[in-house]
User: Which sequence fits this backbone?
């Protein structure tokens, strides 16, 4: 019978929430348009930076030995030499990314002074590339002189170097690798979305009821407080999960609209391999994420129950969001193999660690099982606190008016 009232409360709250245009826009529609738009602009900026790093840059040349500098730069067809009367102004205006000043010094050597704008990423990247290009030119010149002297170049390099990953060296098959870019972004986005996805809904369903003075009539209905709390909690969790789903769809749209950004990111931050993970691993990871969604929803329910107004609940809920950033940022630069066993005992951090291992192709049922158990215990404690607050008349019926 109680489950009947729980379902009624859940349907009622979901219906009211979907009537609110602000909820639909912020929870469902905004992620569908925000992320494709964001990655579209990031694709252009990151692509320009990678083109510059690859030598596609425009420079100006000046100085008494500018002809020799032009000869060196002509070896790379991707470098464009701009003819300008005022190289410094061109650099300041962004018409060129570098100015190269060549002068002849004693001994017939060429001195190249690279002038760059340290406030522009393209100029900084070009400066690094030109430095590498000149180093390669010097090495090629040395090699040619040694070859003319009859010296075998291989004899000057007694040690060769090659890099092989562990899976290839041992012949062991792993679950693949989703790439560093994805393993950095996805866990961070997911946890942050879980932390904020149900905040607005919880504030409206609990503190908002107090403001509208509809909480007391609701508590006088045949539905018990447990059924009311459970139904509202289910609605908050549903919106948190819908926010995550909308974001995942938005990210998928971003990939199809700006595939070059993800391929560039893979080259810069780690190669991508096809993931091949056991189904139980994926199922346990999804279960852990769902439990964490419930935990965050319960935390927002506790806050919204204690608060007098939606504004007060939103303010307190911001602390939950900021606290969730700590384990996310603490593990952001970690790889899948860097996740330590003790992290399974820290809520939120165990979710991030599990997602990183999943994306890194690491199967660790002990870590997943421990993380689920710890998160479940934390969930029970937060739910007990929410139920205790929901049973306190002094808290449930207090308002500002």
Assistant:
């Amino acid at each position: 019978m109680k489950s009947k009232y729980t379902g009624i409360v859940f349907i009622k709250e979901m219906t009211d929430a979907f009537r609110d245009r602000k909820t639909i826009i912020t929870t469902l529609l905004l992620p569908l348009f925000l992320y494709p738009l964001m990655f579209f602009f990031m694709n252009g900026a990151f692509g320009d930076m990678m083109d510059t790093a690859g030598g596609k840059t425009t420079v100006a040349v000046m100085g008494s030995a500018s002809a020799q500098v032009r000869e060196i730069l002509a070896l790379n067809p991707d470098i464009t030499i701009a003819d300008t009367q005022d190289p410094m102004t061109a650099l300041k205006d962004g018409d060129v990314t570098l100015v190269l000043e060549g002068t002849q010094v004693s001994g017939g050597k060429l001195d190249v002074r690279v002038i760059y704008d340290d406030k522009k990423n393209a100029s900084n990247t070009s400066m690094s590339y030109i430095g590498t290009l000149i180093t390669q030119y010097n090495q090629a010149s040395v090699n040619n002189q040694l070859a003319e002297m009859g010296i075998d170049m291989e004899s000057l390099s007694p040690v060769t170097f090659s890099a092989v990953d562990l899976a290839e060296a041992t012949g062991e098959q792993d679950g693949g690798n989703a790439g560093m870019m994805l393993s950095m972004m996805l866990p961070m986005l997911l946890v942050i979305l879980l932390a904020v996805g149900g905040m607005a809904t919880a504030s409206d369903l609990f503190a908002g009821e107090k403001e509208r003075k509809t909480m007391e009539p609701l508590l006088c209905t045949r539905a018990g407080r447990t059924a009311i709390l459970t139904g509202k909690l289910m609605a908050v969790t549903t919106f948190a999960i819908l926010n995550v789903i909308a974001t995942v769809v938005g990210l998928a749209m971003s990939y199809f609209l700006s595939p070059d950004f993800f391929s560039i990111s893979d080259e810069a931050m780690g190669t991508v391999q096809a993931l091949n993970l056991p189904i139980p691993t994926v199922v346990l990871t999804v279960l852990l994420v769902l439990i964490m969604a419930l935990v965050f929803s319960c935390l927002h329910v506790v806050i919204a129950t204690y608060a007098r107004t939606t504004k007060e609940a939103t303010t307190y809920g911001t602390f939950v969001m900021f606290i969730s950033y700590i384990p996310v940022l603490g593990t952001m630069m970690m790889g899948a193999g860097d996740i330590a066993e003790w992290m399974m005992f820290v809520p939120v951090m165990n979710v991030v660690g599990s997602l990183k291992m999943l994306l890194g192709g690491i199967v660790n049922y002990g870590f997943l099982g421990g993380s689920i158990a710890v998160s479940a215990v934390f969930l029970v404690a937060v739910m007990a606190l929410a139920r205790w607050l929901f049973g306190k008349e002094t808290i449930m019926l207090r308002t500002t008016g």
Observations:
- The chain has two domains: 2-48+176-396, 54-161.
- Residues 190 and 350 are 13 Å apart (CA to CA).
- Residues 2-48+176-396 form one domain.
